[in-house]
Each structure stands twice: as structure tokens, then as C-alpha cells.
Amino acid sequence: MEWAGARYADKPTVEVSIRIGAPPERVWALVSDIGLMPRLSAELESVEWLDGATGPALRARFLGRSRHEALGEWATTSHIVEYQPPRVFAWAVQDPETPSAIWRFSLEPEDGGTLLRQWVQLGPGRSGLSFAIDRMPEKEEKIVYVRLREFEAGMTATVDAIKKLAEGAGEAGA
Questions:
Q1: CATH fold of 8-166
Q2: Domain coordinates of the chain in residue numbers?
Q3: Of 26, 105, 129, 151, which alpha carbon lies 20 to 30 A from 10's?
Q4: Confidence band (pLDDT; 50, 70, 90) for 173?
Q5: How far apart are CA 44 and CA 40, in angstroms?
Q6: Phi and psi for 143 in degrees, rounded to 5?
């Protein structure tokens, strides 16, 4: 992926993909289970549905609590902005009109299995990364690059864990 020179205002993105030997419905059950995600993430520590929601639906909201060694701890409210079972599950972080990030899982049937993609866009709304950029504006491109690399590594680990779970190769994190 090419991020050299990427600035936060450019809404940089990262996407990873993996081929899974399981039908989209099985993969969908995993990617749309927000309660599973903290087990698969190095940063996301907990999630909970808001407003009485008990599962994913368009415009449902959930609270996520995260922790990062360099960025500290924070909580964000995410809004489901795309929900097309078993094809697309996406949420906008904080303000859905100007999110600090948009995350998306896309599933495509492929040769009896599933092609799973995870995608993220930074910005355009402010985030913890914005505060780091404010403190060191001359290092903005490096800050964005490092964060995108972190996301790429975390997303790769997430889709790998989803593949193992969907294919029945063991528990997440094992």
C-alpha cells in the first residue's frame, strides 16, 4: 500500500483481504458480532450496544473502549452506516456526518468460500491522531503513515483470526 505523503485531510485508507473456506453467512456471523471484536484486536478492549440495541442494524450505535501504548485510553461511539447481510457491515466513528474514521467489512462469495475485505478510512473528523498532528504538524505525514501501518497490521491479524474461526481451526487468539 502506498501512503507516502498522505495527510489526514486526504482521508487516507487501508484495505486488507483474505480468502476464507467458509460460506459468506458463516463469515458474516463473525464480522457482524461486535462482541467478538475485542478478542481479535490489540487496541479494542470492550464494546457495548447503546440505546437498547441488542445486535447490528442500520443506525444502531455502540460504544467502544480502546487502548494504545502511545495514544492512551479512549472511548468512541460508532454508528452503523451500512448493513447489508451478508455482504457489507460498516460503521462511522463519532459523528456519522464527519467521522473520525469509517470501518467496513465486505464479503463476496468466491468459489464456494468467501473473499473478506476489511477497510478503514481516517478522517475527515478529528481523532486522537489529530491531537498528535497538532503537537507536531511538521511530522503529519509520518504520523499518518505509522498509524496506517498499525491499522494494516491489526486488520491483517483480525481477518486471519476470522478465517480460523470461520474454518473451524480453533478459537480466536489461539
A1: Alpha-D-Glucose-1,6-Bisphosphate; Chain A, domain 4 (3.30.530)
A2: 8-166
A3: 105
A4: very low
A5: 8
A6: -60, -45
